[in-house]
Amino acid sequence: xxxxxxxxxxxxxxxxxxxxxxxxxxxxxxxxxxxxxxxxxxxxxxxxxxxxxxxxxxxxxxxxxxxxxxxxxxxxxxxxxxxxxxxxxxxxxxxxxxxxxxxxxxxxxxxxxxxxxxxxxxxxxxxxxxxxxxxxxxxxxxxxxxxxxxxxxxxxxxxxxxxxxxxxxxxxxxxxxxxxxxxxxxxxxxxxxxxxxxxxxxxxxxxxxxxxxxxxxxxxxxxxxxxxxxxxxxxxxxxxxxxxxxxxxxx
Length: 251
Ligand SMILES: [Zn+2]
Hints:
This protein is α/β, with parallel strands linked by helices and 251 residues long. It is 15% helix and 30% strand. The chain is elongated, with a radius of gyration of 27 Å.
């Protein structure tokens, strides 16, 4: 029978549960980050990084950087440790310690990792360390001031005009799309698309497309297309096309 082995290397640090770590706990956390660094897979940068993340219940998750021949797939130590913790059900963190081989400088998390840490709250302390274990403590807010976080998504947004921006496809009234837009709109801007636009609009701008535009418009501009335009328009400009234009205007 096959045996499934757990490779868990989770450790714990004895801490009094306070938000502020004792000196001993800080030293242990930094030591954990130095141990994590031993596993760094960084044949391209040769820049080893280790991280040790302390959860609210004093569990430590370690991570190292993992690079890839496809360079941009590389993962930083901090994100590695956080992903390990989250995948084990942890989302509240007291602190994260970071270690590298830098002797004279405190290793500082990259911008991406600052954002990644920030996702789980502004209260996590970040310990930047040198090889001798000396450290500088920083808050997430100091590392990433005026940050964008999950709370922003719940903030009030402008919905008037039902304007939608999309980089894929938009099937919504009034659209700006880099893919294709199928629009049945009544607003001021009915479709701007870099793909194709099928528009049934009544607004001021009914379709601007770099692909093809099929427009049944009644507004001031019914179609501008660099592909082909099939337009049944009643507005001031019914079709400008660099491809072919089939136009049926009633004005
Ligand atoms: Zn990073």
